[in-house]
Amino acid sequence: TADGRIAPDGTPPIKALPGTLSWAVLQGVETAKKDGKAIPQFDQEVSALNEKPIKIRGFMVPTEGAIKQKRFLLSPYPPSCAFCLTAGPDSLIDVQTKEGIKTAFEPLVVSGKLHVLEEDAQGFYYRITEAMEAE
After folding, report:
1. Residue 83 half-sphere exposure, CB side, CA atoms within 13 Å?
2. Could you tell me whether strands 68-75 and 52-62 are parallel, antiparallel, or unpaired per DSSP bridges?
3. How far is residue 6's CA from residue 12's CA, in Å, rounded to a whole number?
4. Cα separations (Å) of 3 from 21, 43, 59, 99?
5. β-pair partners for 55
6. Cβ contacts of residue 5 below 8 Å, gap of 6+?
7. What are the beta bridge partners of residue 132?
8. What totals of helices (H) and strands (E) does the chain contain, helices first?
9. How many Cβ atoms sit within 10 Å of the Cβ of residue 32?
């Protein structure tokens, strides 16, 4: 769709707010095979975002059992199950914070430096560092 890919359960991605990056931009990545691995093939628009400050709206997928998350996943889809993800690597961002962000189940806006990852050992296509909750 114009707003991004629809999740396997039919859920559309969260809409971007003014001043935030649309998930449709990140989801436009193509995937190729290299030595049996899936490797992202980023277009010029996405590659130009590497190491740039961004704001993006999404849903927190906590990875720690803490009130504040120092590292979590951000997705354009609301979590529907505590044990499964509703998206592939083009629809997940590995978020790393200094201070931690309070665990939330409502949409939030995260700001920080976006890293476009060509060959990440963990399989991520995107990472935000120096992240904090934005308005």
Report:
1. 0
2. antiparallel
3. 5
4. 11, 17, 16, 31
5. 111
6. 13, 27, 90, 91
7. 111
8. 2, 7
9. 9
